[in-house]
């Protein structure tokens, strides 16, 4: 079996796109979380099947992952259509039909009130706060102080691959782990070199949530999106830590629920 | 012992000190198939059961049939037979759109609570969508049972409505009624998002406005808001009448000890040791083993250094009983004396245990 079908994408390319899709509540890749059950490639048509930790995972979150998976895979030039199948979920019928027939959330779930965008925006903002914690930790470790950090602007970062169009590709894998980025601090009076990955991950979400878009804007923000007052630096940083603990705790619950379900299914299979 | 493998017949002791445990969150539910009238009822108990098996040691897991309805006798045995808990607080969950007779109503809980009034505290509930009838029902619960608190379930379905918020005008009317009747403890279930589909009915932000508008009431956020621990801690840090109930977080001690350490560290950092309250969520988890797991849990060196907090004997005493005793006006020393010969102690042979547990008079 050849990996590559005539005129179709490679399996690796599909996985790479799926890797960009996150569980919005955990801010972790659905590939890393092992939600993907199968990828089938038939020429320009790709089918992806996935399962969530429990049948009761929020339908809104399930919907976001299904739509994102579809859109990411279809962004490959070699893909004409992506068919997404969610299994073992209490709303799999509505979600699978909605995503593959390209309905809106409100059309797929007539009894839901409104759309998922507000929920998505809130989770993106939490992901930004959690990522900010890692980025700021990196800068603290490099010896920058609070006053310097809160004053940094987008333009103070210089790396060949940090730009509006490349941050996404940077986030995709571990390849950038040993790359560094230069930071020009204190009105560009000195520069330090720090690991690029935490900063790129932060920038990606900061752009997605539109808290930072212009090069002279302050890079780091309170959870409410405001520039950070140096006096409240510690508190804001602690809130970033808290956002991380919240996500990883929920991750612990999801992991546990998935293990419980798997062992129950195994037991049923043994009977 | 009929049910548990109770190897611990002594009260929980740490460094020779006894810890009075008040389980702040217990249920007596009925999810038998006969009582289920909507698919949601079956989904609901199955979801609970997944949580149960996920965070219960394998040897202590129940099968689904005993989980659907365990009954009053077993509950008493699980809670008290090995003195895992000394007292417990019933938190009702009506879900009358899912269950014919309700899932875990005040009336159902009252059967047991009135049999052992010295051991149980009975809470009521309200639902602002019930309007005038709801206010009357709240008064009725107050008159009949003198409820000191209510458990609220903001994501409960009712007809076309998929939930309500604590900061709604209607909800404020009920909170005013609570204040007027002296029902001081408002327990809000804030747990995982299941339904409604898109709106986040377990969003904790509604607690903020309610808590600042009713400073004389205590707002206990159950499940410490998980998966919104961040929103919860931030609100609680600003409103000192907001408390965190440990249900769901507690059993992390058993199979995710590092996570337990981290969550507990955050809670102690943001809320301090006076506003964190133990609850097992029985029968989601059984205090029979859970209490011991929580008491024996430790914070990691890294977390102690990072947060500067301790899970020491004084903190444990507060979290496991003293804090909630304060909210419910429970005199722990008087209770200890009373339990030297109450019916439960006689039934399980705990008289000596309470007798020996009496601390020196000058201890205060």
TrEMBL record, chain A:
Top-level taxonomic group: Archaea
Gene3D superfamilies attached to this UniProt entry: Fe-S cluster assembly (FSCA)
Domain MIP18 family-like: 11-82
Pfam families hit by this protein: FeS_assembly_P (PF01883)
Protein name (Swiss-Prot/TrEMBL): MIP18 family-like domain-containing protein
UniProt source species: Natronorubrum sulfidifaciens JCM 14089
């Amino acid at each position: 079996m050849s990996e590559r079908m005539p005129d179709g994408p490679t399996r690796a390319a599909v996985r790479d796109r799926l890797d960009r899709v996150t569980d919005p509540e955990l801010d972790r890749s659905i590939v890393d979380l092992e939600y993907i059950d199968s990828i089938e490639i038939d020429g320009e048509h790709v089918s992806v099947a996935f399962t969530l930790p429990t049948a009761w995972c929020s339908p809104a979150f399930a919907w976001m992952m299904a739509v994102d998976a579809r859109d990411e895979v279809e962004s490959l030039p070699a893909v004409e259509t992506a068919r997404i199948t969610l299994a073992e979920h209490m709303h799999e019928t509505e979600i699978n039909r909605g995503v593959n027939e390209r309905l809106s959330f409100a059309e797929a779930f007539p009894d839901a009130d409104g759309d998922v965008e507000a929920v998505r925006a809130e989770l993106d903002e939490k992901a930004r706060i959690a990522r900010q914690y890692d980025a700021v930790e990196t800068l603290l470790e490099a010896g920058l102080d609070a006053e310097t950090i809160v004053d940094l602007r987008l333009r103070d970062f210089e790396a060949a691959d940090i730009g509006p169009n490349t941050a996404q590709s940077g986030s995709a894998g571990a390849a950038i782990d040993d790359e560094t980025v230069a930071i020009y601090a204190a009105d560009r009076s000195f520069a330090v070199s720090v690991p690029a990955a935490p900063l790129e991950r932060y920038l990606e979400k900061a752009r997605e949530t539109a808290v930072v878009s212009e090069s002279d804007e302050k890079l780091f923000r309170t959870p409410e999106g405001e520039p950070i007052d140096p006096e409240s630096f510690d508190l804001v940083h602690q809130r970033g830590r808290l956002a991380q603990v919240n996500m990883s705790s929920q991750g612990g619950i999801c992991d546990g629920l998935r293990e419980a379900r798997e062992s129950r299914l195994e037991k049923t299979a043994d009977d | 012992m009929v049910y548990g493998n109770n190897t611990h017949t002594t009260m929980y002791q740490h460094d020779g000190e006894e810890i009075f445990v008040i389980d702040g969150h217990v249920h007596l539910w009925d999810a038998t198939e006969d009582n289920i009238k909507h698919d949601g009822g079956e989904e609901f108990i199955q979801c609970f059961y997944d949580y149960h098996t996920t965070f219960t040691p394998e040897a202590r897991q129940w099968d689904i049939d005993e989980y659907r309805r365990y009954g009053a006798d077993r509950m008493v045995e699980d809670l008290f037979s090995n003195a895992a808990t000394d007292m417990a607080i019933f938190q009702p969950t009506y879900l009358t759109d899912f269950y014919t007779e309700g899932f875990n109503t005040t009336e159902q809980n009252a059967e047991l609570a009135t049999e052992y009034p010295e051991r149980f505290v009975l809470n009521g509930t309200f639902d602002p969508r019930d309007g005038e009838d709801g206010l009357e029902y709240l008064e009725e619960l107050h008159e009949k049972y003198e409820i000191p608190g209510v458990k609220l379930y903001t994501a409960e379905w009712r007809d076309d409505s998929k939930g309500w918020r604590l900061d709604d005008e209607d909800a404020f009317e009920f909170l005013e009624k609570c204040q007027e009747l002296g029902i001081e403890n408002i327990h809000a279930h804030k747990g995982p998002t299941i339904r409604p589909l898109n709106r986040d009915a377990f969003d904790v932000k509604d607690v903020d406005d309610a808590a600042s508008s009713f400073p004389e009431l205590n707002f206990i956020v159950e499940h410490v808001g998980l998966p919104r621990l961040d929103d919860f801690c931030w609100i609680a840090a600003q409103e000192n009448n907001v408390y965190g109930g440990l249900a769901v977080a507690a059993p992390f001690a058993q199979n995710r000890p590092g996570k337990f350490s981290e969550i507990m560290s955050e809670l102690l950092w943001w809320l301090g040791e006076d506003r964190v309250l133990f609850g097992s969520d029985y029968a989601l988890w059984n205090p029979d083993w859970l209490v011991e797991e929580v008491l024996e849990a430790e914070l990691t060196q890294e977390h102690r250094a990072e947060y500067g907090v301790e899970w020491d004997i004084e903190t444990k005493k507060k979290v496991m009983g003293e804090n909630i005793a304060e909210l419910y006006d429970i005199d722990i020393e008087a209770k200890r004396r009373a339990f030297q010969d109450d019916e439960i102690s006689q039934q399980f042979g705990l008289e000596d245990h309470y007798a020996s547990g009496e601390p020196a008079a000058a201890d205060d």
